[in-house]
Amino acid sequence: MRSSGRRIVPGRPFVAAYLSKHDTYDDLTDPVTPEVLQWLDTELKRATGRS
């Protein structure tokens, strides 16, 4: 993540739990917002073909 310049937004509980135990990722982590959760839900539905 660091070398690509990307950020981590823990939109799923297991990701958030992992990150909460590993503070070495704090500099790469952004907060989860309602907009992020909506985007993630839309993308997951698109990827799985759900409506």
Write the H/E string, N to C: HH
Spans where pLDDT lies below 50 across 5 or more residues: none
* Quaternary organisation: single chain
- The Rg value, from CA coordinates, equals 12 Å
Find the structural class using helix and strand composition: mainly alpha
Mean of pLDDT: 91
Largest sheet composition: none
Number of helices: 2
Q: Proportion of β residues?
A: under 5%
Helix content: 40-55%
In whole angstroms, the N-to-C terminal distance is 31 Å
> What shape does the CA trace take?
elongated
Task: Give the number of domains.
Answer: 1
Query: Could you give the count of β-strands?
Result: 0
Give me the secondary-structure topology.
Layout: H1 13-21, H2 34-48
Describe what this molecule looks like in 3D:
The protein is mostly helical. It has one domain (13-48). It contains 2 helices and no strands. The longest helix has 15 residues, at 34-48. The mean pLDDT is 91.
Which terms would index this structure?
single chain; 51 residues; mainly alpha; 2 helices; elongated
